[in-house]
Amino acid sequence: MNEARVAAIDIGTNAVRLIVAEVGGTDGYRVLTDEREQTRLGLRLDETGRIAPESRSATLDALERMKQTAEGFGIIELRAVATAALREAENGPEFVEASRDRCGLEIEVISAEEEAELAMRSVRERFPLGAHPAVIVDIGGGSMEILFVTAGTVSEIHSLPVGAVRMTERFVHSDPIDAADLRSLRDEIDRELSAIATPPYPTPTMIGSGGTFPTIAALAMQDQRGETGSVQGYAMSRSEFEHQVGRLREAPLVLRRHMLGLNEDRADIILAGATVIESLAHYLDVSRIWINERGIRDGVVLEMISRL
Q1: HSE-up of residue 199 (Cα within 13 Å, Cβ side)
Q2: Chain centroid to CA 91: how far?
Q3: Residue 228 confidence (pLDDT)
Q4: Burial status of residue 277 (CB atoms within 10 A of its CB: 0-12, 13-18, 19 or more)
Q5: Strand 77-82 with 5-11, pairing
Q6: Considering only 51-60, 189-198, 213-222, 260-269, which range has the smallest mean pLDDT?
Q7: 217-251 pLDDT, tens per residue?
Q8: Nearest alpha carbon to residue 145 among 186, 114, 189
Q9: Are residues 265 and 201 in the same domain?
Q10: Do 157 and 252 share a domain, yes or no?
Q11: Bridge partners of 8?
């Protein structure tokens, strides 16, 4: 008898991701396919307040293909969740309607709190939190969700508009980034972080999801081991993270595109995203950063499986 199969689509500000999973295995499910397509749904959103026509078209095309792919695996349930771009866009409801009409796909536009809860669900399944305090971070193209956790319980959730696409469009206008752009970028990040009171207990451990974290980890793995591979559960010191960010900061776009372990279509936004994480780690005095490659999609899949 075949095990049940489910699928999740994560519609982000920078990319659309699909995971098809079969129930079972040591991780709770086996991944049958894991796909990503950059569509830049949030292109110029910060400037215009609207989804751009070219981003709308590219994202609908991707959703149509991914839905067909998922259905080809004989899934019993498919959920599509959307985050910051569709939460904020003036024409977000029109996009949701277009997805329904063209693709037959119902999109759930989830709140920042729901996004954080899905990230937490994934972390609980993948990491032994125990009684130790930690900060869980999910950074996308539009926003960053921050969860303070102690004894496995979330005590605070914050959502800041400092995603990698948004911050790149606003502040990165030089290549390599010059001192003035970097100062403006860091000043805005610090301004946003100042609204968050540091917890009354130390948070030496950060667990991060969203494309920026595994990309930096892949660069570090290549440096240390001479090879890249899965970075799920990979741990790095804050100083190593900062070292990799420094490499990116000095490299022009054409070089970043050829750095081993770096997704080429992420090369233009990686520096802003990494600088956000670097600033947060410094602000909270984090000493170690763990990588969760799966993130929100994992949380959605685990949620579906729990109801079977």
Answers
A1: 22
A2: 23
A3: 78
A4: buried
A5: parallel
A6: 260-269
A7: 999 998 888 777 899 999 999 999 999 999 999 99
A8: 114
A9: yes
A10: yes
A11: 19, 79
- Contacts (Cβ under 8 Å, ≥6 apart) of 13: 40, 41, 42, 45, 83, 84, 85, 140, 141, 142, 143, 163, 165, 166
CB 251 within 8 A of CB 164: no
Quick one: tokens of 239?
Answer: 């100083």
pLDDT in tens, 148-167: 998 889 999 999 999 999 99
Spatial contact of 300 and 132, defined as CB atoms under 8 Å apart: no
Contact 171, 99 (CB under 8 A): no
Residue 285 exposed, middle or buried by CB count within 10 Å (0-12, 13-18, 19+):
exposed
By three-state DSSP, how is residue 101 classified?
helix
Q: What's this model's pTM, rounded to 2 decimal places?
A: 0.95
CA angle centred on 215, ends 49 and 118, rounded to 5°: 60
Number of domains the chain is built from: 2
Residue-number span of the structural domain to which 89 is assigned:
5-111
